[in-house]
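Practice problem: predict the structure.
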Amino acid sequence: MEEMMRELYQEHSGSPLTLSMIVFQTKSEDKLSSEYFDALFLIVQEDAEHPWRIHHYESGNWRAAVHTITKAMETEWLDYHRRIHTIDWFMNGEVIFDKNQGANNILHNISTMSAEEREVSAGREFARSIGYFEEAKGLFRSFQYLDAFHKIMEVLLHLARLSFIEHGLAPRSPVWEEIKKVNPDIFKLYTELIAGEDPLPERLDLLILALEYEIGAKTREGTAHLLTVMRERAGAWEADELRHRLPSTTTAELSLLLEYLVRKGIIDVKLEKAGGETLYHRKYTAGNFHFMEGAVSNGP
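Answer:
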């Protein structure tokens, strides 16, 4: 194993393009984090013909995966914690080569998100939880219970990640052992879903009711960035204007999020004539909505 690691180190550290190298060696009970290899190398280069290349190696009974990525791809992976396993590699791996302290700076940034990064990350997780929740409710109403189960699991996962962000932590894997410490209520719902004794339809019905409350309780944190953007100007916003103004990682569920906020009275709809007799542009403004602790409230 040591000889193989030495050869991989020498091969890549000698390249003028290499900026940093991290090796992540898995524990026997957690092979998934290293994609079922004994070790995983993450090599960041300044530039390359391909932004992401994968090579697999074997020596005796020891196997390694090598991911070679560009600096731009590293930023994409880590930006607002898009790839959870990448966070594991950085946080729990060993930096074995680091030109200009780039890897150590990344570690610092992961551990200390700015207020804006937390708001953006929270907004993304909140919007995704709403998207999966709406899907789950539709599937439940049409008696597609197994599919609804899957969607509710996704809701719980994104609410768990949102809880990590609220506590100033990077979303991590495995999720559920960690969320038990950070947000016991979400862990309790997860346990009820997967291990409850009631028939599946009854468990799903219970979870939908509970998640309605949990999502409502997260609305303040989950919409902070969007509402800040909307209050940058007095006028109304078209959905496409918001899409261009917000980070790309948060816009996939933008329409669902806007409709949710309209239903809750958190933002207002403004109709503007579109040219025809009966057609209007639908625009959005941040209204006079005020959050109360643990709830939402209209009015001063």
